[in-house]
Amino acid sequence: MLARTARTTRTASVLTAALALTTAGVNGGITGGTASAGTVEHRGIVSADPVDTTPHVLDGIVNAIALVGGTVVVGGSFSEVRDAGSTRILERANIFAYDLASGRILPDFAPDLDGPVNALAAGTSGTVYAGGAFAETGDVATPRLARLRLSDGAPVTSFRARASGGKVTSLLRHGSRLYVGGDFTHVTGVRRTALARVHAATGAVDPAFTITPGAPRGPRVKVYAMALAKDRLAVDGSFGTLDGLSRPQLGLIDVGASPAKVAPWRTDAYAAECKPTFPSYVRGLDFAPDGSYFVVVTSGGSGGPRKLCDSAARFETRARGETDPTWVNHTGGDTLYSVAVTGAAVYVGGHQRWLDNPHGRDSAGPGAVARPGIGAIHPVTGKALRWNPTRTLGIGVKAFLAHRGGLLVGSDTTRLGREYHARIGMFPLP
User: Secretion signal: which residues (predicted)?
Assistant: First the structure.
């Protein structure tokens, strides 16, 4: 990537403004990686020109991003990172952090996690929650769930939640509550199948939240992603029921009730089968900033226009009775992993080659538009927007995080917006 003086000035001013806005608003909100709720509204579409200052992840994949004040925390499966413009390689075990404004990697935050990080959520008092397939942080036992101090990377010992029987794939904090999703069977010795709510400070399991996914589609029950808006928690994954009620791969939970209960909202849109190798094919989901609708993205293989395989679909949160999607945008045979809804756009990422492609079968059907690896959809019409920065495909975009200054993107490849940005990048708001 070539340095350009005029652009460097623009990047610095954009990030300074973003930092001021973000610090003012993020600490009390809901923040995470692919599980983040749609609480950040953008009035326009982000630039297709990434900022120059983001650091580089030199191997593996980025799975999750969180923003804690002015600090970006990045999690995944990797071992080496370096600052933009530097040749010095830093060792980082599946997690690192950097300053949003300058892009500089935090030297003192270097937890030694012995397994991949799949999910992150911002904590209070300069902390971040990490979930994944790890067992230890350094020499401290933190089975699959930890709360870490940004100042030195050490686990917060007063937080005692531990997942067992499987991994953590999704985290979402709202005030004093932390929602945990995955394919685990217990949390701190309490039976919780794939979904739990714990106290954000102590990690104590909440007895008022016992929603249980069941009827696995595939070898075991798993919650893949979560998002929260007002009193509705959306969950998707490899399940057919929630508390015994039919909810094929997707459901809403009324978390304003005590105890929490499955909301009457339901859809059979994901009851259909895709390819046999994808018994469960839902992936990311995100609410609009006002909570009125949410968007789900999927894998599954080409299923044709009548199925929601390899697609993005919008659903209305307060719809009554059996609910169909408001619109569907098909890739024509490629997976979408992540989605971020900002009001101005629905950003989608995976290893897709096209959007607007309902009749494609690993091919560009009539009306298909090329959107390699990343794209944006109009939230009302469901059609692809002209925004087309491109990305080297690889596995795909595993993490989006929209914030007041732009859109952070995490993946497994090294070119984003036609420039070198290894596995992490940011598109700023103009």
Answer: 1-28
